[in-house]
Design brief:
It is a single chain. This protein has two domains: about 5-145, N-terminal domain of MutM-like DNA repair proteins (Alpha-Beta Barrel); about 165-290, Helicase, Ruva Protein, domain 3, CATH 1.10.8.50. The protein is about 25% helix and about 25% strand. The protein has seven helices and ten strands. It has helices at about 5-20, 40-45, 140-145, 165-170, 180-185, 195-205, 215-240; strands at about 20-30, 50-55, 60-65, 75-80, 90-95, 110-115, 120-125, 135-140, 275-280, 285-290. The longest helix is centred in the C-terminal third of the chain and has 23 residues, at about 215-240. It is elongated, with a radius of gyration of 21 Å. About 35% of the residues are buried. The structure holds zinc ion.
């Protein structure tokens, strides 16, 4: 399942190819995703220019506007894309300027035919074999977008300066649930999926079963730092796959993070040699070192 690092790397991979490109065609071959692709997506998008590619949590947000005279944006809206369990969003350049779109397969649900400012044609293709993802359209303004039903419950971004130990400390007071469960819920900070939860808690030396409300301010500070380091490392590793965003079918999967504890049950801890333990919390597997994490 694509996690925040994969989505962020997708965003960075798309930016140089699609920013400023005009949408000259839209093909929707299958509307049955997690929520149906809007019936009027084609008419909503046709003729618009992609002005920028943003991300909130695991949602990609493509701002698309009509160009009025003088290059001024008009009537802006947002294409909201979620990759679900198996989704990919990839760029396929066409062989010639007026060239045909590349052949599509069974799971290629949505194609945007784009024309770059230099006249090159390319296809921005959404593929999703398991169909848990989403391709939606919203005409909310940038300020209003934070209140969109899919976005309003999200915690702060992990790389936002607002996310620090103090915030984590304040927001965990009075919460008796285990810190692993609280972190995974995503309402304090987004993007700490199951792998990154186990890894961040290891780096911070915190036992995943610790009640969140019992963490000291100092340990909250360490955990916030560990979350940022773990995600930044995953994004940096993904950066080496950026070339795969052009012209490939986008073999997905996790970045090859060198995990300290995740999926290493019974194997020796990389720091102290103690066998890594696996437990289940909220129906998800958790891995930790009983010696390094207290
Ligand atoms: Zn250890």
């Amino acid at each position: 399942m694509p996690e925040l690092p994969e989505v962020e790397v997708t965003r960075r991979g798309l930016v140089p190819h699609v920013t400023g490109a005009r949408i000259v065609g839209v093909a929707v071959r299958h509307r049955g995703l997690r929520w149906p692709v809007p019936d009027d997506l084609e008419s909503c998008l046709a003729g618009r220019t992609i002005r920028r590619v943003e991300r909130r949590g695991k949602y990609l947000l493509l701002e698309c506007a009509q160009e009025a005279g003088g290059g001024q944006p008009l009537d802006a809206g947002w294409l909201i894309v979620h990759l679900g369990m198996t989704g990919t969003l990839r760029v396929h350049p066409h062989a010639a300027q007026a060239g045909e779109a590349p052949a599509y397969g069974l799971h290629d649900h949505v194609d945007l035919l784009l024309q770059s400012p230099s006249g090159d044609r390319l296809t921005l293709r959404y593929r999703d074999p398991r169909r848990f993802g989403a391709v939606l359209w919203s005409t909310l303004s940038e300020a209003e977008l934070a209140g969109h039903p899919l976005l309003r419950g999200l915690g702060v971004e992990p790389f936002d300066p607002a996310f620090d130990g103090q915030l984590l400390y304040r927001q965990t007071r009075g919460r008796s649930a285990a810190i692993k469960t609280v972190l995974l819920a995503g309402d304090i900070v987004v993007g700490v999926g199951n792998i990154y939860c186990s890894e961040s808690l290891f780096r911070a030396g915190i036992r995943p079963t610790t009640p969140a409300g019992r963490l000291s301010a100092q340990r909250c500070e360490r955990l916030a730092q560990a979350v940022r380091e773990t995600l930044a490392e995953a994004i940096a590793r993904g950066g080496s796959t950026l070339r795969d965003f052009v012209g490939s079918d986008g073999a997905s999967g996790y970045f090859q993070l060198d995990c300290f504890v995740y999926d290493r049950a019974g194997k020796p801890c990389r720091r102290c040699g103690t066998p890594i333990r696996q437990i289940v919390q909220g129906q998800r597997s958790t891995f930790y070192c009983p010696q390094c994490q207290r």
